């Protein structure tokens, strides 16, 4: 993507929108021969025709019909027609590397070249991007907003290029998934395996974390979707939540726990120590509600833990109890290492689903993955 010229991409969007080279040249403020030359170069780079040259004007091919809207959205994020791909790359690499030295190592550009690119970008956008903090650097508020805008622009351009490659018979698209704890237990592995069998050339990037760790990468465009427990209320107007299924947690303990196999009351469960999920998570709120709705004091919680792997080991060797989805300990339940010690009231079920950016338009490959995810969730 970095080898592409933003001016050429702007020309393609203008041609698709206006239907002629001369009108596009006037709008992007460059000569018609330059627009023609830029279009030819871009078509050569992509290996596909973008327009049919007809007497009445320029008619977009299917490739341009897919690519042009992505370019338009990317340009909206970038904001200025004067920004170059080199400046965009310099800012994003500096943000991801954290220093000019690291950005230089990533890009192969000299540090003076990076400094010049960032200085030129600040002049073009009329705002400061970075400032000195001791021996290091920090992004200004304007810089942070610009980094997010450029990341979203990059995501749109990558998606457009992936769709063009799909037209050429190569599924080189990618989907970046944020995986919250419950999704990692069953639905995401099953969906990934089934999707890969059908789309072996597509890339799937999975990043594990809690909601708080994943939400900003989603907003930045580094993630396409988060799979896990949905938030109520919604985390923001810039995000969309789509339910997949209802998950009903259960009270889990070791198979020979003192309360196993009986009809213990919630009051009896409250007498034992618990491992609770971290405060602020939906599961923690449901755990509290289970006891508070019954008029009981909360049990002792010597351990707060968000790691299911750690929780499983602690439960297996102690009298601790935990509220978990049976999916999260499916193997331990099937082998008898752990057991469902008690049921949780049905009203404490949680909705598992996907969270995306508002207005996000998945590529064909990404849409196929989401369809597989929904199929597994049924």
Automatic annotation (TrEMBL):
Belongs to the LysR transcriptional regulatory family. InterPro entries: LysR_HTH_N, LysR_subst-bd, WH-like_DNA-bd_sf, WH_DNA-bd_sf. The keyword DNA-binding applies. This is LysR family transcriptional regulator. It comes from Sphingomonas ursincola. One of its GO terms (molecular function) is transcription cis-regulatory region binding. SUPFAM superfamilies: Periplasmic binding protein-like II, Winged helix' DNA-binding domain. Keywords: DNA-binding, Transcription, Transcription regulation. The keyword DNA-binding applies. Signal peptide: none annotated. Residues 4-61, 83-140 form the HTH lysR-type domain. It comes from the Bacteria.
């Amino acid at each position: 993507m970095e080898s592409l010229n933003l001016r050429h991409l702007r020309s393609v969007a203008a041609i698709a929108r206006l239907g002629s080279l001369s009108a596009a040249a006037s709008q992007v403020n460059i000569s018609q021969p330059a627009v023609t030359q830029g279009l030819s170069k871009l078509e050569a780079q992509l290996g596909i025709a973008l327009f049919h040259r007809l007497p009445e004007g320029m008619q977009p091919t299917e490739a341009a019909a897919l690519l042009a809207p992505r370019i338009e959205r990317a340009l909206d994020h970038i904001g200025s027609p004067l920004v170059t791909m080199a400046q965009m790359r310099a800012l994003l690499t500096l943000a991801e590397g954290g220093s000019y030295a690291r950005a230089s190592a990533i890009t192969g550009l000299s540090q003076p070249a990076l400094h010049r690119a960032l200085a030129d970008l600040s002049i073009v956008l009329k705002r400061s991007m970075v400032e000195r903090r001791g021996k290091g650097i920090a992004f200004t508020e304007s810089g942070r907003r610009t980094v997010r805008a450029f990341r979203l622009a990059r995501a749109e351009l990558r998606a457009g290029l992936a769709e063009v490659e799909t037209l050429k018979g190569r599924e080189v698209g990618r989907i970046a998934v944020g995986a919250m704890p419950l999704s990692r237990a069953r639905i995401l592995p099953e969906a990934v395996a089934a999707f890969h069998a059908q789309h072996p050339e597509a890339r799937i990037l999975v990043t594990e974390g809690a909601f708080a760790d994943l939400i900003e990468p989603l907003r930045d465009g580094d993630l396409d979707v988060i799979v896990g427990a949905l938030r109520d209320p919604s985390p923001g107007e810039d995000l969309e939540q789509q339910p997949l299924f209802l998950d009903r947690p259960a009270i889990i303990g070791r198979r020979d726990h003192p309360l196993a196999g009986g009809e213990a009351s919630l009051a009896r469960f409250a007498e034992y120590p618990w491992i609770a999920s971290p405060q602020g998570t939906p599961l923690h709120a449901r755990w509290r509600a289970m006891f508070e709705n019954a008029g009981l004091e909360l049990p002792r919680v010597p351990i707060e833990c968000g790691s299911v792997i750690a929780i499983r080991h602690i439960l297996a060797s102690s009298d601790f109890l935990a509220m978990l989805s049976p999916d999260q300990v499916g193997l331990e339940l099937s082998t008898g290492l752990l057991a469902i010690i008690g049921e949780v009231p049905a009203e404490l079920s949680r909705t598992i689903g996907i969270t995306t950016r508002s207005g996000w338009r998945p590529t064909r490959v990404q849409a196929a993955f989401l369809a597989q995810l929904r199929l597994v969730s049924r």
